[in-house]
Amino acid sequence: MNTDIVYRALSEQIGEDRLEKNARMAEHTSFLAGGRAAVLVTPGNVRQLRYAMKIIAEEKVPFFIMGNGTNILVRDGGYRGVVVKIGSALSDIIINDRGIEAGAGALLKHIAEKALEKGLTGLEFAAGIPGSAGGAAYMNAGAYDGEMSRVIERVEILKSDGSEIYSLSSDEMGYGYRTSKLMATREVILSVALKLTAGKRDDIALKMDDFNSRRKQKQPQDYPSAGSFFKRPPGNYAGTLIEKAGLRGISVGSAMVSMLHAGFIVNTGGATATDILALMKLVQERVFEHSGIMLEPEVRIIGEQDGFEA
After folding, report:
1. Which of 57, 167, 187, 267 is paired with 173 by a 20 to 30 Å CA distance?
2. Residuewise pLDDT in 10s, the chain (310 residues)
3. What is the distance between the alpha carbons of residues 62 and 47, in angstroms, rounded to a whole number?
């Protein structure tokens, strides 16, 4: 594995302050669980990101692009490649005549706040989603009958080898339920242009308050999690299926199916990725036995089962 070569090349051009070797990914993910990454790089600008992707491609090292870390889990064995974190350095939010343009690292809640401030409607559903603009656009995140694909006008993309920057419209992104064509191409989102419409601030604020109130009442916020763990099956709801299978509150180690919302797996304190994945498998098996439906994880799972020396 050429991660040492990548680390040295990036440290010379980007600086060691933006690099971490043998990085504890539990410190970078909302689950607060999981193994280490051989190298974690957090570029400070697009030029550094392009250089990082170029070196990774040249050395043929596995890579994973992450945003705010709210929808991923690294197996306890760790990730043998390079994790590229798109963080606050790429988080500019610009208001224009057509709506909002946001860097991939901008948090959805901050973008929604800007939309409210400027009286722009259409993004209220995203106010309580904890992820970044890039991550949300990548997986077509959504809530309360809203989806990113409906408000995205254009996505600026960097090819995975850092060679070219180009744009795709929402229609060209190949959006489906929690998916886009970038999941196959593995290219990197740099920014997202959102097409919003003028609205009344009071109405926008009321809708956002309603959605956030519902989240507080129905979703667990006292324990670390990655949000809804499973994708919604066609014509059904994962949480409902899990509850009907009698799994509310069931635990493996310190991982538990939430008592508040059965669609969430939570870390009650010191859970390992192995605990979480064992509980995931148990839930899948029991729900399939009960309903004949196999639940698919919405959380992105990467890394090795066994450990490695970085």
Report:
1. 57
2. 689 999 999 999 999 999 999 999 999 999 999 999 999 999 999 999 999 999 999 999 999 999 999 999 999 999 999 999 999 999 999 998 779 999 999 999 999 999 999 999 999 999 889 899 999 999 999 988 899 999 999 999 999 999 999 999 999 999 999 999 999 999 999 999 999 999 999 999 999 999 999 988 889 989 999 999 999 999 999 999 999 999 999 999 999 999 999 999 999 999 999 999 999 999 999 999 999 999 999 999 999 865 544 3
3. 20
**Per the residue annotation, which of 20, 101, 124, 298 is the catalytic one?**
298
User: Could you tell me the domains of the chain?
Assistant: 3-85 (3.30.43.10), 90-204 (3.30.465.10), 220-294 (3.90.78.10)
190 torsion bin: left (phi>0), alpha (psi -120 to 50), beta (else): alpha
Q: In what order do the strands lie in the sheet with 165-169?
A: 93-95, 99-103, 188-195, 152-158, 165-169
Given 178, 180, 225, 232, which residue is catalytic?
Answer: 178
Catalytic residue, candidates 149, 180, 228, 258 = 228
Q: Tell me how far apart the alpha carbons of residues 256 and 33 are, in angstroms, rounded to a whole number.
A: 13
